[in-house]
Write a structure and sequence with these properties.
Blueprint: E1 10-17, H1 23-33, H2 54-59, E2 67-72, E3 75-81, H3 89-98, E4 101-107, H4 114-125, E5 130-135, H5 144-155, E6 159-161, E7 163-166, E8 174-177, E9 182-185, E10 194-196, H6 200-220, H7 222-231, H8 236-249, E11 253-257, H9 266-276, H10 284-289, E12 297-306, E13 309-318, E14 320-322, E15 326-329, E16 334-337, E17 340-344, E18 349-352, E19 354-356, E20 360-364, E21 374-376, E22 383-384, E23 395-396
Parallel strand pairs: 1-3, 1-4, 4-5, 5-11, 6-11
Antiparallel strand pairs: 2-3, 7-8, 8-9, 9-10, 12-13, 12-21, 13-20, 14-19, 15-16, 15-21, 17-18, 17-20, 22-23
Bound molecules: guanosine-5'-diphosphate.
Guanosine-5'-diphosphate binds next to helix 1.
Family: Belongs to the TRAFAC class translation factor GTPase superfamily. Classic translation factor GTPase family. EF-G/EF-2 subfamily.
GO molecular function: GTP binding; GTPase activity; translation elongation factor activity
Keywords: Cytoplasm, Elongation factor, GTP-binding, Nucleotide-binding, Protein biosynthesis
Length: about 400
């Protein structure tokens, strides 16, 4: 039997985007690639898996944040879908409270748009580490460098571009991975890339971009600067660890690119999620509370009604929750019993016996708890307060 992933192999992440940038398509492609869905969802025919609410389908926008689990390369990814529309800012706020990291999706033609700015600033306030995915590189007028400039100018970040596109617009076929200096090309209609050496015509550009990446990293990261001064170059290993530290500290933002619609660039995006975004143990509130024997505490971030009944989606911040446990809803002052614990996958719910601090699950049997409520061990009542940038979650006794 498979053992439960250790928390170092968990990524609780959100996908943040302006409406239409391609968040739904990126999510679908991730679920498809990770095997969580077996048919490829398409946005235009209303069969996508994450947009399951009829109202949502009608409006063509993602209203309700859904959490979906999938496995990738020995890691569990809990994808917390966040609404891109400003009307649903409370939902955005709640989902930002439960994620450890995010992928911000941008349109390669439009670059940074007004809603991306407001979601970005909120993510800053919540101290959510991010990587960026510049999507739609296949579109006429797509321009990675212009999109990267808009990240720098409008979001005041330091973009750290780790890929170079191969081909433009309709002829966009893949990327050069600037860390490994390898070409990744997606044959039409396939989700997996063929890896090869950098095409001759692109070598000079790829070297120039690699150099620019090394210089930008050296400028931001003391250990990298030391190596850069000594060898006037940075190794792949140094780049990788410096990029991770810069992502976690918010000192810079790793930028990848692709075309979700054409299934190009999704696997490197997943590799970057695993490489650069934090596990729950990198988040102070969980690191300190990772003792599974500690009293249980969790934050409810979404409630919905599905074929499995009323589901209460929660992030466990402390201790362990087991099937049959009694929990106190501190806001309602009610004690409830956990009927089932479910891992929500794209096309099914999987029963689990327990969940520990850092994990995201849905529970059935809880009748009263609303989004924003704290569920905790009846003998150790507390309220999980909205996090500040400095301390992701504070416990108030
Ligand atoms: P969301 O509103 O951010 O969830 O965006 P969607 O995923 O619904 O995408 C908005 C529109 O852009 C849909 O018509 C998609 O088919 C289209 N789209 C998404 N990704 C790409 C892409 O990589 N290239 C192109 N050309 N279109 C895309």
């Amino acid at each position: 039997m498979r053992t439960v992933n250790p928390l170092t192999a968990v990524r609780n992440l959100g996908i943040l985007a302006h409406v239409d940038a391609g968040k739904t398509t990126v999510t679908e492609r991730i679920l498809y690639l990770t095997g969580a869905t077996h048919k490829r969802g398409e946005v235009h025919n209303g069969t996508t898996v994450t947009d399951f609410d009829p109202q949502e389908r009608d409006r063509g926008i993602t209203i309700f944040a859904a959490a979906v689990s999938c496995d990738w390369d020995g890691h569990r990814l809990n994808l917390i879908d966040t609404p891109g529309h400003v009307d649903f800012s409370d939902e955005v706020e709640r989902s930002l409270r439960v994620l450890d990291g995010a992928v911000a999706v941008f349109d390669a033609v439009a670059g940074v748009e007004p809603q991306s700015e407001s979601v970005w600033r909120r993510a800053d306030r919540h101290g959510v580490p991010r990587i960026a995915f510049v999507n739609k590189l296949d579109r006429a007028g797509a321009d990675l460098d212009a999109a990267v400039d808009s990240l720098r100018e409008r979001l005041h970040t330091v973009p750290l571009v780790v890929q170079a596109p191969i081909g433009r617009e309709d002829g966009f076929t893949g990327v050069v991975d600037l860390l490994r200096m390898r070409a990744l090309v997606w044959p039409d209609g396939q989700g997996t890339y063929a890896e090869g050496s950098v095409p001759d015509g692109l070598r000079e550009e790829a070297l120039r971009r690699r150099r620019a990446l090394e210089e930008a990293v050296a400028e931001l990261h003391p250990a990298a600067l030391e190596e850069f001064c000594e060898r006037s170059a940075l190794s792949e290993a140094t780049l990788r660890s410096a990029l991770r530290e810069l992502t976690l500290s918010g000192g810079g933002v790793v930028v990848l690119c692709g075309s979700a619609y054409r299934n190009r660039g999704i696997e490197p995006l997943l590799e970057a999620v695993v490489d650069y975004l934090p596990s729950p143990l990198d988040v102070p509130a969980v690191r300190e509370a990772a003792d599974p024997a500690a009293p249980f505490a969790a934050l409810v971030f979404k409630v919905n009604v599905t074929a499995s009944g009323r589901l209460t989606h929660l992030r466990v911040y402390e201790g362990t929750i087991r099937k049959g446990d009694a929990v106190l809803d501190t806001r309602a002052g009610r004690t409830e019993r956990i009927g089932r614990i479910l891992r929500v996958q794209a096309d099914r719910h999987v029963d689990v016996d327990a969940a520990v601090a850092g994990d995201i699950v849905a529970v059935a049997g809880v009748k009263s708890a609303a989004a924003g409520a704290t569920l905790c061990a009846p003998g150790a009542p507390l309220v999980l307060e909205p996090p500040s940038a400095a301390a992701p979650v504070v416990f108030v006794a």
